[in-house]
């Protein structure tokens, strides 16, 4: 990029780092370079609200395209096409993609989108795609992280996995991706694989960002997911998660030092994380099995989990449940349209109330034409009760409008369940010690780190899609400078 082209914009997406956690890390000295940006370069932490679901596909669609409607979760059931929509290797999003982003003007139009969920109009991805990590939640996976992180704690070992241009980024990325697609695990023993993969991809992504900057792409967006993954495995405040932040900080430093008067840098997160307890902590019976118990003759399938109730051949119908941390969507899968609450109640009079009565479920939401229906503690709630419940977690009006928006999506579940809070932690429908997807705590409170002089105002941003005009505005203003 030459001076007459103006300044380019690099956006680094640090997945799962909430605004409070960022500020804590800055105070504790875990992110010294980021602190330097604030103290010496006039950067400031701008808080915003991700909206609900507080998950990456929803937030990133909002940031990149300005439109995240009909993205109800990390993964969801598309009734029209009868497909489980998910990202990463074996992504099925492409099968429904035609329904999304029509007429949008992506943040990275003609730029580079690296390790993002979506192509976002980019001219280049460097072959690095977003991965669905599918953190397994078992002890072995946790110990794998410990091994890899202790390895990287030794500065002599950090001599950049991919660094110094020794390996062609395209070659490495292609080999890596094709290994994954063939179901092969690249280059390491199975035990340390997921964790090492994560660190490897982090370095690969950074390498691609630096390359994209050298090649002068006007807007560059890159996703870094290692913090979110360690958070899921150990909880967001665990020392291992903080150790990852040091790597993130180092990456920010490397990218910042490559600006050389041609680029400006923004660092942001898409959602935060909170400490969670797996659903098994409150119930010996799995969530899906409880629901199968109230739907005789039905088969209830936890997507990416087990199936309960009637066998596939004899079942009267199927219910699919998609989990995203403390959020669960429940779909009567054979139907082509979302069920109205009155319809559901006529057919299954006690189902919604029963689910709302499960220890571990804090709130259930359904929709009746244009009205939102809320249930908790086994019964329907009046308006005041809903507000006082929500007020425990955030501004009740804002939370209500965020929930109402999610509830307006045709691709949301017929019933939507949210994990209850126990011992200060949210019940998580996946087997994770840190989670997000729902509301409560900092999971829906991410940040944008930007120069104060740019005058970004995120105080009224109540959903990631509202960040899009702010960032594209900044991109366009920088382009006119230089
Ligand atoms: Zn996550």
Explain briefly what this protein structure is.
The protein has 482 residues and is of the alpha+beta class. The chain contains 15 helices and 20 strands.
Structure description:
This protein has 482 residues and is an alpha+beta fold. It folds into two domains: 3-67 and 104-273 and 441-480, Alkaline Phosphatase, subunit A (3-Layer(aba) Sandwich), CATH 3.40.720; 277-435, no CATH class. The chain has 15 helices and 20 strands. It has an eight-stranded mixed β-sheet with strand order 10-9-11-12-16-13-14-15. A six-stranded mixed β-sheet has the order 2-20-7-1-6-5. A four-stranded mixed β-sheet has the order 17-18-8-19. Helix 5 (139-153) packs across helix 7 (193-215). The N and C termini lie close together (11 Å). The structure holds zinc ion. Residues 16, 228, 232, 436 line the site of zinc ion.
Indicate the topology:
Layout: E1 8-14, H1 19-27, H2 32-41, E2 43-47, H3 56-65, E3 76-78, E4 83-85, H4 93-96, E5 112-114, H5 139-153, H6 169-181, H7 193-215, E6 219-224, H8 226-234, H9 239-257, E7 263-268, E8 274-278, H10 287-293, E9 298-302, E10 307-309, E11 317-324, E12 327-332, H11 341-347, H12 351-356, E13 361-368, E14 371-376, E15 379-380, H13 383-391, H14 396-407, E16 415-419, E17 421-422, E18 425-428, E19 434-435, E20 447-451, H15 468-480
Parallel strand pairs: 1-6, 1-7, 5-6, 8-18, 9-11
Antiparallel strand pairs: 2-20, 3-4, 7-20, 8-19, 9-10, 11-12, 12-16, 13-14, 13-16, 14-15, 17-18
Helix pairs in contact: 5-7, 8-9, 13-14
Bound molecules: zinc ion.
Zinc ion binds next to helix 8.
